Amino acid sequence: MSSADVQREFDVVIFGATGFTGQFVVEEIARVVQKEHGIKWAIAGRNKSKLETVLKQASEVVGNDVTGTSIIIADVADEESLLSMCRLTRMILNCVGPYRFFGEPVVKACVEAGSHHLDISGEPQFIETMQLKYHDAAQKAGCYIISTCGFDSIPADLGVIFTRDVFKGDLNSIEAYLSINTGPEGGSWNYGTYQTAIHSVPHTRDELLFGKKLVSYEVPPPAHKATKRPQLFRGERVGSDWCVHFQGADRSVVQRTQRFNYEQLKERPVQFNPFVRISSTFWLVIIALMTTIFSLLANFSFGRSLLEKYPKIFTLGYFSHEGPTKKQIEGSSFSWHFVGEGYETKIADPDQQHDDKPSKMIETRVCGPEPGYVTTPICLVAAAMTVLKEAEKMPLDGGVLTPGGAFRKTSLRDRLTEAGMKFEKL
Length: 426
Ligand SMILES: NC(=O)c1ccc[n+]([C@@H]2O[C@H](COP(=O)([O-])OP(=O)(O)OC[C@H]3O[C@@H](n4cnc5c(N)ncnc54)[C@H](OP(=O)(O)O)[C@@H]3O)[C@@H](O)[C@H]2O)c1
Known about the structure:
Blueprint: E1 12-15, H1 20-32, E2 41-45, H2 48-62, E3 70-73, H3 79-87, E4 91-94, H4 99-113, E5 116-119, H5 124-141, E6 144-146, H6 154-166, E7 170-181, E8 189-190, H7 191-200, H8 204-214, E9 232-235, E10 240-245, H9 250-265, E11 271-278, H10 281-298, H11 301-309, H12 311-315, E12 319-320, H13 326-331, E13 333-343, E14 360-369, H14 371-390, E15 399-401, H15 403-406, H16 412-418, E16 422-425
Parallel strand pairs: 1-2, 1-4, 2-3, 4-5, 5-6, 6-15, 7-11, 8-12
Antiparallel strand pairs: 7-13, 9-10, 10-11, 13-14, 14-16
Helix pairs in contact: 1-2, 1-14, 3-4, 4-5, 5-8, 6-9, 10-11
């Protein structure tokens, strides 16, 4: 039995519960524990009265009085407080970001205490550094450290797995096209994600290098390389005006999953290229202009301070300290459209290549409600329940894994479907 599976006072603690996203995660867990009986949970952060307010609000929203839920005080700057928190629980759901600044001490404390750690980061450099530094120790401690358990990158990672599951034959490559849909009130994200994005820009180059180092070519190189797309191209294939390369963590996460499942399960790795759909030339121009200004400023410390000071001005109101309104959240949704290519036949040995060109296509879709504050809590809490209930179906008895590596054999997809996401073959 791993240390994370021994009896502890709590099964799960939500750290960073007072954050914009943390509040929604608390509400999601308050909902889910009504069905998943016997889950002992608590919330944690550095301010007791703010944490009490979180519980009051969650009780009102969910219609279930959770105000008696335990509160733990812990601060990232206080190592002892982190360790004490981690020793009380089998699992931490970490909502304290940017992870580049606050993530590592929490991972370290979890590994030391032998507690599982799930987070919603989308920062490849943080994620891959944790893999390099803590994978062996986490495996020894018998705990799972799983990042990107939110909109980054569960829909994309599990979407690729779903597509290969429903493709009869060998899948060679997938192009994935993301659309974010908003209602009449428009869409918006909270400042926490904006701040994370600002501080990711100066490290983009390191991230590329890191990506190469971890996801190097230790999978058999494909006989037929996927079509290389330019930075900007017409999206006729998926009925959209324009498409650009998706800059988030999804590509590196999916590649790590593909490599891991090749090593562990002898599955043939699938090439993966994600893009974002842009609905019109007007929006393309606006987005290009804003992104250029944002990237230029984010490369300098003065520019970063300016961006942090005026989020609404630099993003035309898309990011703010108030975050999205209830109406904006209710009116938003996302959809990943996967277009796969492969072979009719299957060759059991993944190291053996097909001679002919891919000749069979498949289209699938993963969609769900608003990505940041509805889908992310759904994904994080569903992933948490899966670790608690189905650890015996997970690989290696611990370690730093991607969602697709950790949950390949579990029922996570069913849990997500039950909570409102959809995986479908088109
Ligand atoms: N994967 C996704 O799709 C997705 C979606 C949403 C968010 N996120 C990520 O989640 C993270 C949080 O975003 P957010 O918008 O919720 O941010 P936020 O509202 O600013 O919340 C930050 C949280 O961190 C806590 N915190 C800050 N410093 C701390 C410290 N020293 N010790 C303990 N707690 C500390 C804050 O506590 P106080 O209340 O005490 O200040 C607060 O609870 C970001 O990295 C964001 O990118 C990812």
